[in-house]
Inverse folding.
């Protein structure tokens, strides 16, 4: 792999959230730039003053536009700290509690990003870390001095959303980033969910909706994007699968295994609101990271004796200088780990979230060590909570493991249940592994 000699993880523009949580607004590691949990905040009082207009709320620009513009300024500050700009971004992920905010983000994004908008995924979730926030964003970029060129890929046979303006896939070095895709069809995705991805009208059992959608996305969206970028399903290393109904996972996994066989990528399943996507009746959206076929020898399954969340799925995959985890919950063969089960007869004598986090960070550290790296090299933390009141106690566990280290963390609240009933947090981790 073409990586530079930088082996340390550098926190960019660190601040302290709420006077308690060390937070890395950005991370630089090797050729990579990460910015997680970007909100339109002043880092002191919640939403920035230019976003909140309590005295004259209907004067000036729309509130969600002001918020989106502020959020993009915060993202640009991180990029500029490394000498980069939005032309070096390879992926963004956005979360919204209210779908009406999305067009205003698209407006601000076009103004800040110009003709190049990186592969993107936008999802509806119940709540963000600042209760009044209408959007948050996570970002991955390539440093300006990396020697890697960011190349946009435009497969001619791929339908794209008419208003989002994002590039369907990009390459950078040997990596391929594919945007989040729905089972949509027709130019501009204006045909809604494709007929081939639906059970025929009036029929009850001519297929299963989640399987039809998943198969359509893989065949008609992901494979064309990968092929055009010089990659293929066999070299996918990481996927996020957003589901309107988490109970669809077993049926989805049948399709996943059919396409990937024994080489399933690190996969995270994330519940959404329902509706949770750009198309109201969509059931799932999938984004991918892959290596080019020419770099297949840089992929390795991480070793661990722990039980994965789904049979046949790896706990983590090493891809070049990144260790990419599947979604992790604190569960064993009997469900939620025993240490995290609070006795209903003595409900105030234990903390389930702290026990869950202790288990998850133990497991993550074990996998990191076997892969020749360390949890201290974490570059991207996504925490999906069923209750954001758990965020601060979860961060306290992080601080015990990594004292004083600013965390590159984002968190959103998602609908319960997660993959295992009783689990209240799911971790999605990226670790630098030079």
């Amino acid at each position: 792999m073409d990586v530079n000699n930088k082996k340390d993880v550098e926190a960019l523009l660190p601040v302290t959230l709420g006077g308690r949580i060390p937070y890395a607004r950005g991370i630089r590691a090797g050729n990579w730039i990460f910015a997680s949990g970007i909100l339109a905040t002043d880092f002191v009082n919640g939403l920035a003053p230019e976003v909140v207009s309590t005295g004259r709320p209907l004067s000036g620009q729309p509130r969600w536009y002001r918020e989106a513009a502020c959020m993009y300024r915060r993202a640009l500050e991180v990029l500029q700290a490394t000498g980069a700009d939005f032309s070096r971004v390879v992926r963004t992920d956005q979360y919204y509690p209210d779908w009406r905010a999305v067009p205003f983000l698209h407006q601000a994004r076009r103004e800040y990003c110009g003709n190049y908008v990186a592969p993107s995924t936008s999802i509806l979730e119940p709540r963000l870390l600042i209760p009044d926030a209408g959007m948050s964003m996570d970002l991955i970029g390539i440093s300006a001095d990396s020697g890697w060129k960011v190349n946009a890929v435009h497969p001619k046979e791929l339908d794209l959303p008419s208003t989002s303006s994002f590039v369907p896939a990009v390459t950078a070095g040997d990596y391929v980033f594919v945007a989040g895709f729905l089972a949509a069809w027709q130019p501009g995705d204006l045909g809604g969910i494709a007929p081939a991805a639906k059970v025929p009208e009036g029929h009850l059992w001519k297929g299963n909706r989640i399987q039809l959608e998943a198969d359509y996305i893989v065949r008609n969206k992901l494979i064309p994007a990968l092929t055009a970028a010089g990659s293929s399903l066999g070299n996918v290393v990481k996927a996020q699968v957003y589901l309107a109904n988490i109970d669809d996972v077993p049926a989805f996994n049948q399709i996943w295994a059919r396409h990937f066989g024994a080489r399933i990528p690190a996969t995270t399943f994330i519940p959404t609101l329902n509706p949770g996507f750009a198309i109201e009746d969509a059931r799932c959206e999938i984004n991918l990271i892959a290596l080019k076929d020419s770099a297949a020898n840089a992929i390795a399954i991480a070793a661990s004796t722990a039980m994965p969340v789904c049979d046949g799925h790896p706990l983590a995959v090493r891809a070049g200088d990144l260790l990419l985890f599947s979604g992790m919950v604190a569960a064993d063969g009997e469900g939620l780990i025993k240490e995290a089960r609070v006795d209903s007869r003595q409900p105030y004598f234990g903390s389930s979230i702290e026990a869950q986090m202790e288990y998850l960070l133990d497991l993550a550290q074990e996998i990191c060590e076997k892969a020749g790296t360390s949890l201290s090299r974490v570059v991207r933390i996504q925490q999906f909570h069923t209750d954001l009141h758990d965020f601060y106690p979860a961060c306290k566990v992080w601080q015990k493991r990594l004292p004083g280290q600013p965390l590159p963390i984002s968190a959103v609240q998602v609908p319960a249940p997660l993959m295992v009933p009783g689990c209240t947090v799911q971790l999605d981790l990226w670790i630098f592994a030079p």
In short: The helical segments are 63-80, 102-113, 209-228, 249-260, 352-370, 391-401. The CA atoms of residues 13 and 25 lie 6 Å apart.
